Amino acid sequence: MEALLSTSERSESGRQPLHRFFAHCAADATLREELIRIAHVRGFSSGETIVGEGEESGLVGAVISGVLRVQKTMPDGRQQIVGLLFAPNLFGRVFSRVSPVAIEAATDCRLCCFSRAAFEAFLARHPSVEHDVMLAVLDELDAAQEWMLLLGCKAVQERVASFLLMILHQADVGGGAARRRQRMVNVPITRHDMAVYLGTTAETISRTIQDFARRGVLRIINPQRFEVLDEARLAFLSGRATDPGDVDEPSLRSA
Fold it and tell me: What does the alpha-carbon distance between residue 105 and residue 49 come to, in Å, rounded to a whole number?
């Protein structure tokens, strides 16, 4: 719990919806102590299920380190990744017994866990904190809508660039100055899962990343690890920046 509060205090920028929640609790000694009393830290190995889809779960919490994968099962049995959770995002279903999604550890992770009943009681006693949690949920809905726009309207190149920027900026939250200087991207899911998440194929993902490397946007260290050499150009290729600089725009457009 102390580590999670420290993570929220270290963050300098970015839209991290739960920063306000943990900053609020850290600033009030009474809230802080009460939250610590109902919290416990648990470790999960990569691939381990934390909350099952369609199952009743009494567990909620927040990510301290590592990445969680949010999944839905299709009628034919295929699994679709619908979200990734990073520190200090909440996981679990507050005010609801049954989870509509499965939550799994995408990497080895440490979680700050609460009994759902105890956490709901804590929020009921402190309406201002409950307000912060509701704002966090609204921010997550905004992020989901932005991702739907990306999948529906953007070219594959823009999706891949947006994904890499998302990972890079999430790494900044807990990485400090050294992480920011290195500009390293460690993709926490397999190339296949990344393709499913971005609505394309693993082969197209590979070609797009190779294209970025040829342009000098990034350096490929291994299939899951990249060094971003030109973040401004990567932002332009994602469609987030309007100044092309010296970027030659034609690239992979097929899915």
Answer: 7
| Residues 163 and 107 both lie in one domain | no
Task: Note the pLDDT of residue 172.
Answer: 55
Q: Do 113 and 192 sit in the same domain of this protein?
A: no
Most confident of 15-24, 32-41, 172-181: 32-41
Query: What is the reported pLDDT for 185?
Result: 92
**What is the rounded distance in angstroms from the CA atom of residue 227 to the CA atom of residue 124?**
45
Could you list the residue range(s) of the whole structural domain that residue 132 is in?
A: 2-151
Dist. CA 126–CA 5, nearest whole Å? 18
**N residues, the chain:** 255
CB 88 within 8 A of CB 139: no
N- to C-terminal Cα distance for the chain?
43
Which CATH number fits the domain that encloses residue 59? 2.60.120.10
Q: Which of 92-106, 140-154, 211-225 reaches the highest mean pLDDT?
A: 211-225
